[in-house]
Design a protein that fits this description.
By secondary structure, the chain is an alpha/beta fold. It has a single domain, classed as Alpha-Beta Complex (inorganic pyrophosphatase (n-terminal core)). It is about 40% helix and about 10% strand. The strands form 2 sheets. A 6-stranded parallel beta sheet has the order 3-2-1-4-5-6, with helices on one face. Helix 4 packs across helix 9, helix 6 packs antiparallel against helix 10 and helix 9 packs parallel to helix 11. The longest helix is centred in the C-terminal third of the chain and has 16 residues. The protein is globular. The protein binds zinc ion (2 copies). The site of one zinc ion has 7 residues, from loops.
Length: about 300
Amino acid sequence: MLLSIRDTVAVAVRRAIDPIDQLLVLDPGRRGVARFFRPGGALGAARALGRARRVLITTGFALGPGLSETDGPPGAAVLGRALRRLGMRVRYVIDAATLPALRAVLEVLGEPRAIELFPDGDAGVAARRVLARLSSTHLVAVERPGRSRDGAYRSAGGHAVGAWNRPLDALFLVPSRATTVGVGDGGNEIGMGAIPRNALKAAGVPPRIASVVPVDHLVVAGVSNWGAYGIVAHLGRLAGRNLLHSGAEEGRLIEACVKAGAVDGITRRREATVDGVPLAAHAGIVELMNALGGRR
Ligand code: ZN
Ligand code: ZN
């Protein structure tokens, strides 16, 4: 705990002057996020996405049958809404495990349910087909399992989760001209391959779980939803309009996920928390983002 606070402050003071980064580096799960945090990552992702035309967003982390996480879909939907408001075409490509939660959050936001399921069969073939059809200029993953060095998908606790999650990371591995963005909080998500393996190891991420799937713009945050909101805060500032949601809406998003059957990724309980952090704290983070960066 002490080490974590010291690391967090050190990063904030040394490099992350941006107030949004200061919020993203908060580490409620005490996972040592500060040790693999990417200062400027959210801003870089926002700058890249600001030039997008057609965006494919994926999300969803299932820990077992019927155990889809509350972290991911809210971030994906808030980011998708921001991009759609900026005039971009947004499509969500997910698997069946995440469908109820993503549908529920899009409904809370009054957003179109532009969702498709990743096709069955060989993942590489499916990925090529989806990318060719959607001609996506940008790909975004928010809290989505990324394969590790041995090809397996693992939870932060080291459990194999490949049986419950389709290999959607193939979208980020087949050759394409799309710019890629990944948001994660544990080291095992799509995008973490952008961090050198020994740097992740030094940060305390077990090599067995570390994802080797890289992205052009990696956003690390204490909770992945926050990372997506951080991108939205920067998008709003760059566009000169507020694109973030409110703290009250954040509460409704989390509650909708739970009602749709999602569970907290850490406690595995069906309750209105994300990564073991109570709803009020998530609402507070969103309000802080609005106060510090989103509305300027
Ligand atoms: Zn995670
Ligand atoms: Zn998480």
